[in-house]
Backbone:
């Protein structure tokens, strides 16, 4: 019996010590320092300030109550880009910042809190919720009880990646809630109003829309507390796939298509000097040749044109090429000297001497013959133009054909096997 | 022998703390809403003569979801463990180091601050008892009751009337620490309000 009593006393002593019921702390609070300080309010944690106490001693009382603030809570998880994006957008997006300002909690319209799914110290708070996707946003009324039970979920949704839409939905939900639950007289302390609780959430969480952040699959459990079955995957409804339309072929960049109208803007005060007059006439003549009789030319004075077109006085004389009233191109007075307006005549000096040398040195060569033929045609066209005769092909088409022939020649030359230097030596 | 064993078991069951359920019902009179299981994390460690100030601040930290404050007692990425006794200057120092925003209040206005904290849904680490710090969990002005959690017995919440609480607070000197962060939302529930 003595042994039993001894054991029970020993066990009691061990239990007491282990539970810390009667600690013998000799020094845990520096009471002397508390006495020395007197009445002081320090706001610490935001960096040292030389005049900390001076500033805050002036405001010894506590700040204004923020018990009337609504709560906006973000349920987040690690490794979730959409969660990070939402948190950033609460800082940067004006529509969300108007609801919750994480950078300035005192000025924030609501109490803004972020809870991590992985944080076991907070998981129990959301045990009654069904959270199937992250981030999830919750909105709750103020703690003061002014808008009823502060535990009521006024809004719950997943984040779809559009901050304006989220802000609009939150305000709409609050407006609807406030229309149903009239503001009540302020209750003392933390009165909560009992209400009948539903089982299922009244909102179907929005499906994840953020293309930047593929959420981990399968859908995660809410805060590791409740086992939420994954949302049934909806059978995809057949969406009519638009038949791929043939790509419209780009319009040939001919002057006709690009420059339906030319507007020549001059300054009536300064007049038009002979050189520029000649150049402008050359441009117009060239365009007339290509456009034909449909080509329109208008002459405008700067006094009228300045209101209609973006032209400065120092750009005059200027030639504008317009389509549907819009300026497509502009040649200002400074560029006129560099514009080639006359056709370049083809003469003996343009003879392809390299082709002739090839024929002389190596004998018959198709590329050399074609090069000579192209020169010949150009030469004949030049002569006919000089004589005022009509051409069988216009300039654009001819240049296109010539370029095509030239590219064929280059391809033929590329296909030719390289000459073996050893073979050449043997010869 | 059997009787003795039965007696022993009975005594032990009375002494041992009751295992609380994390899903214990919400208590609207409390500003700090923490299940007993979490409060017990902040049992005052006996080393270094006790760390009651950090225990009290840490309990507020976990309530307001401020990890830098909640982890004061341990070595974490937020800083090394802060163990041992503290005064206002040490609290100011480690709050600065860890970037914990807090009101560090001494003197006459502490009662006003404690009322403000509980009325706005915040807890407070307060001087309570001789050379001791505890966590103010709530205040019911209509009943004149103060709710305090002692980090030497975190499994329970002690209730004091106005006079008793005044004596308790003055016994340690008027000093309170309140974290300058938003309070936690009330435990959310689905209610058919629409």
Residues:
């Amino acid at each position: 019996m003595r042994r039993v009593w001894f054991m029970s006393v020993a066990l009691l002593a061990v239990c007491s010590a282990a539970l810390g019921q009667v600690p013998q702390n000799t020094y845990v609070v520096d009471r002397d320092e508390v006495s020395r300080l007197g009445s002081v309010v320090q706001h610490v944690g935001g960096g040292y300030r030389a005049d900390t106490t001076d500033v805050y001693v002036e405001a010894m009382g506590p700040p204004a109550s923020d018990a009337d603030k609504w709560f906006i809570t973000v349920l987040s998880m690690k490794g979730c880009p959409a969660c990070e994006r939402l948190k950033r957008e609460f800082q940067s997006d004006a529509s969300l910042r108007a609801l919750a300002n994480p950078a300035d909690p005192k000025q924030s319209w609501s109490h803004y809190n972020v809870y991590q799914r992985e944080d076991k110290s907070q998981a129990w708070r959301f045990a009654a919720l069904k959270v199937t996707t992250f981030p999830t946003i919750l909105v709750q009324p103020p703690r003061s009880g002014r808008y009823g039970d502060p535990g009521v979920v006024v809004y719950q949704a997943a984040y779809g990646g559009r901050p304006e839409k989220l802000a609009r939905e939150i305000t709409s939900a609050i407006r609807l809630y406030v229309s149903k639950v009239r503001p009540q007289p302020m209750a003392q302390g933390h009165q909560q109003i009992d209400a009948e609780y539903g089982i299922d959430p009244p909102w179907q969480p929005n499906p994840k829309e953020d293309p930047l952040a593929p959420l981990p699959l399968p859908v995660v459990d809410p805060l590791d507390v409740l086992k939420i079955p994954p949302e049934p995957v909806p059978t995809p409804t057949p969406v009519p796939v638009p038949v791929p339309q043939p790509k419209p072929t780009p319009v040939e960049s001919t002057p006709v298509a690009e420059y339906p109208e030319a507007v020549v803007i001059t300054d009536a005060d300064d007049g038009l000097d002979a050189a520029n007059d000649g150049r402008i006439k050359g441009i117009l003549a060239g365009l007339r040749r290509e456009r034909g009789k449909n080509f329109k030319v208008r002459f405008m004075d700067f006094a009228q044109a300045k209101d209609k077109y973006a032209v400065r006085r120092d750009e005059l004389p200027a030639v504008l090429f317009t389509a549907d009233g819009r300026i497509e191109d502009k040649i200002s007075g400074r560029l006129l000297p560099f514009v080639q307006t006359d056709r370049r005549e083809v003469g003996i000096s343009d003879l392809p001497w390299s082709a002739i040398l090839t024929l002389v040195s190596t004998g018959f060569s198709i590329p050399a013959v074609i090069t000579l033929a192209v020169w010949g045609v150009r030469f004949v066209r030049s002569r006919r133009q000089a004589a005022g005769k009509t051409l069988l092909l216009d300039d654009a088409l001819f240049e296109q054909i010539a370029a095509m022939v030239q590219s064929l020649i280059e391809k033929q030359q590329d296909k030719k096997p390289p000459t073996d230097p050893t073979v050449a030596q043997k010869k | 022998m059997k009787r003795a064993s039965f007696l022993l078991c009975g005594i032990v069951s009375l002494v041992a703390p009751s295992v609380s359920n994390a899903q214990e019902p919400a208590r609207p009179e409390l500003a700090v809403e923490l299940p007993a299981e979490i409060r017990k994390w902040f049992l005052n460690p006996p080393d270094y003569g006790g760390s009651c100030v950090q225990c009290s601040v840490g309990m507020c930290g976990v309530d307001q979801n401020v990890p830098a404050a909640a982890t004061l007692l341990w070595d974490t990425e937020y800083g090394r463990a802060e163990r041992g006794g503290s005064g206002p200057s040490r609290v100011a120092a480690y709050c600065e180091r860890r970037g914990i925003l807090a009101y560090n209040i001494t003197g006459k206005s502490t009662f006003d601050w404690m009322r403000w904290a509980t009325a706005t849904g915040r807890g407070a680490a307060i001087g309570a008892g001789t050379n001791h710090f505890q966590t103010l969990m709530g205040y019911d002005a209509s009943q004149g009751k103060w709710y305090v959690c002692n980090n030497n017995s975190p499994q329970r919440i002690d209730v004091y009337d106005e006079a008793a609480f005044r004596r308790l607070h003055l016994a340690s000197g008027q000093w309170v620490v309140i974290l300058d962060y938003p309070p936690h939302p009330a435990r959310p529930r689905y209610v058919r309000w629409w």
